Amino acid sequence: MDRANHSVVSEFVFLGLSNSWEIQLVLFVFSSMFYVASMMGNSLIVLTVTSDPHLHSPMYFLLANLSFIDLGISSVISPKTMYDLLRNRKVISFGGCIAQIFFIHATGGVEMVLLIAMAFDRYVAICKPLHYFTIMGPKMCIFLQVAAWIIGLTHAVIQLVSFMKLPFCGPNVIDSFYCDLPRFIKLACIDTYRLEFMVTANSGFISLGSFFILIISYLFILTTAWKHSSGGSSKALSTLSTHIMVMILFFGPCIFVYTWPHPSSHLDKFLAFFDGVLTPFLNPVIYTFRNKEMKTAMRRVCSQLIVNRRIS
CB within 8 A of 234, min separation 6: which ones? Predict the structure, then answer.
């Protein structure tokens, strides 16, 4: 049956983060600042890694990929959110809502796999240092990159197929500031219990399972690094703490949003705001401030850009 025959909803209305104009204005200012800073910071990381030969290593290759994905995550939610914060009526078209859901899950799935790949990279670097460049060669790096995109896109397509034919015949108000499955499917004109369970299984349990796998992996790596405590290991521990911080920032809100049994709570909206607006900004900050090599390379790139600009 064609969607037009059983769905009369052409747009969805967001209730947003707050009804207070003052709070919305503050959120607009902060989200604008973090969005611009996130785009600049992640773009600088990608530019630095690709242009500086000193950073042509597996760890920085994966970091550049993570920053590229963060550019996408920022752009999926932030521009629309900032636009709506200045409007009384916050609406999105049916097609726009579907597209937003798809790209949220695609970029989120890719980032999840990249974080696991980065944990694997640190495991090889610390637990098998003599075989590091043999295992983490160019082919393995490309394989991890391609695998991340395939898994992320597959995850998004599965989510898309699961709700594309749902009938929407009346209610069109979403108590959020963006489109995502937990609230979206509740508006369908059929019993969505099975679909809600599938969303929890596909997104929530995968996030939770991946998080625990990463926690166990990092505990094992930290134990190994502690046993071989030295100057090099202290640097490795510093790098590991950076990875763990980014992992918690990414998985914490995801796990809460997709496994919490009461999606009407306001807390998950602000966690989603944190995950979509703040986390892409915090990732480059954490990786930059805690990595002397990256800071040095960024200074070189910025100096070169300034020199080139003066010459031109």
Answer: none
